[in-house]
Amino acid sequence: MPFLASDADVETFARDGFLLVPGLLDAAETERLAVTARRDRSMEQGATTRSDAAGGKTILAVRDSLSDDIYSRLVRSRRIAESMSRLLGDEVYHYHHKLMLKEPRVGGAWEWHQDYGYWYSYGCLYPAMGSCYIAIDRATQANGCLQIVPGSHHFGRLEHGKVGGQTGADPERVAAVLNRLPLMYVEMQPGDGLFFHSNLLHRSDANTSPDPRWSLIACYNTRGNDPYELKRHNRYQPLDLLPDDAQL
Ligand SMILES: O=C(O)CCC(=O)C(=O)O
């Protein structure tokens, strides 16, 4: 049976702000996701590039709508969506999803931020939101894996402003947080999943390695947190969940 968050996982997530699930996708599903992404020409149309302070570039394809592709089927899979509902304690809906392409040697860094630092300004009143990062490629310190601060979601939303060319959390606060809590490098194998709370502080280094670091990130909002005004992404709409035995 595919993964489904247990009561113990709900406790872990509440305490740490994240849940790492090795083998969230099996080998065949992981391969299908990777093959689809590498062949996906439509990505070139919708993609944007974000630069970091040193000129590194990450390609980002953000999608607000669902289709029948493997990315959408993952968003609609019970193992991710129903697990996220359990972790956040409310029914979730698709807020958006994105492919993050950190290419070898040029993939840029991300400054410390909380996703709710962004989503707050898109009309979401509560931080009852979360994401699931699905590794398409192996993510290591060398190719700029995610770095998180376990437990940092308990600080609540930090001020966000311009940090270099990006929107990031107030550097003074981040330094104070890092004096209290250790950071963790989230090294992942292809097919592993990381569920994380929208107030969890995270960042990543540039990819200076010869290996790509691609991922799919599925972002969810909760039914009780329908944006009071819609600046970006989606309002509440029931998510049509896929049965467990549907092919991804
Ligand atoms: O993939 C990364 O390195 C960072 C992604 C990220 O921070 C985000 O999508 O919020």
Protein described:
- The protein has 248 residues and is of the alpha+beta class.
- It is 25% helix and 28% strand.
- It has helices spanning 7-16, 27-39, 42-46, 70-76, 78-88, 115-119, 171-180; strands spanning 18-21, 47-51, 57-63, 92-102, 110-113, 129-135, 146-148, 160-163, 166-169, 184-186, 193-197, 202-204, 213-222.
- The strands form 3 sheets. It has a 7-stranded antiparallel beta sheet. A 4-stranded antiparallel beta sheet has the order 5-12-7-10.
- The longest helix has 13 residues, at 27-39.
- 2-oxoglutaric acid (AKG) binds at residues 100, 110, 115, 146, 202, 204, 215, 217.
List the keywords.
248 residues; alpha+beta; Jelly Rolls; seven-stranded antiparallel beta sheet; four-stranded antiparallel beta sheet; 25% helix; globular; binds 2-oxoglutaric acid
User: Architecture, according to CATH?
Assistant: Sandwich
Largest sheet: 7 strands, antiparallel
% residues in beta strands: 25-35%
User: Strands across the major sheet, in which order?
Assistant: 1-11-6-13-4-3-2
Quaternary organisation of the protein chains: single chain
Poorly predicted ranges (pLDDT <50, ≥5 residues)? none
**Relative helix content:** 10-25%
- CATH class type: Mainly Beta
Number of domains: 1
Gyration radius, to the nearest Å?
A: 17 Å
Structural class: alpha+beta
Bound molecules: 2-oxoglutaric acid
CATH topology: Jelly Rolls
**Broad shape:** globular
Q: Encode the helix/strand succession as letters.
A: HEHHEEHHEEHEEEEHEEEE
Q: Give me the CATH superfamily.
A: q2cbj1_9rhob like domain
Quote the average pLDDT.
95
According to DSSP, the number of beta strands is: 13
Q: Report how far apart the termini are.
A: 14 Å
Q: What count of helical segments does DSSP give?
A: 7
